[in-house]
Amino acid sequence: MLKVEHVTKYYGKNKAVDDLSFTVKEGEIFGLLGVNGAGKTTTFRMINGLLDLSSGSITMDGKPIDYTMTDRLGFLTEERSLLTKLTVKEQVLYYGVLKGMKEETILKRLDEWLDYFQISDYKERKIKELSKGNQQKVQFITAIINEPKLLILDEPFSGLDPINVQMFMDVIRKLKKQKTSIIFSSHRMEHVEMFCEKLVVLLKGKSVLSGELKQIKKEYRKKNIHVVCDAIDVEALKKVKGVLDVIQNENEWIIKIESDENVQDVFDFVKKCKNVTKFAVEDATLNEIFLEKVGESYEN
Asked: CB 159: neighbour CB atoms within 10 A?
């Protein structure tokens, strides 16, 4: 288990992380989110032992994270961190050796992962000769080659097409089943919703939202109703109790309401419309919750 307890980090007089606390259990996927400059990268570097804490503590299985434990960590950075003049084989060997692995083990696992990602032919190719997507695959391999106990993924799907995103997702789910603790960060909230059981949202280094995703959505209360029919009197619908907004997409209307208590009133209105083929009540998306919470914090 990873424990981050009351961690604060200053750069001079600037407080980059402000009294941050969270835990990540074994086999759990945890979301660490925030706008640019929120303190995510600083937090990741402190967890990896790359930056000293100003105060607080970070432990894994009850022990402080230092150089004796970093071999058990994996870190996929948002920025490309590959040595572009090296071949794929040389690059992965370099990272594996830094993690204390034997060359024979590194090469065996490398062949398995190259085969999985369908880039076995690139083993002797230089990094700079690869596409951005294939460079991302290699960078991902370097992060998991040591079969880490804790894996940090910062924008892991950057530069990937949908097919390769699905391949990455399958690996992440496999690692979860193998009891790897994973910290996941992305600006794509739909990806976070697919994976994360718990999350923290940072703004200016401070947590503005935290907890289990299901509970966060429950407490948020606002809902979206998706309706498909021939036509809706939007102005009249907006006057129905609890209706916050009505958005018309190409194939449906999305009616935003204050809570479950307003569903019946909206249903009574919509059932009078012609050819209603869909009436579905859904939780607000994580993206909506994120925007509202971050916006509130900016205003305070």
From this structure: 15
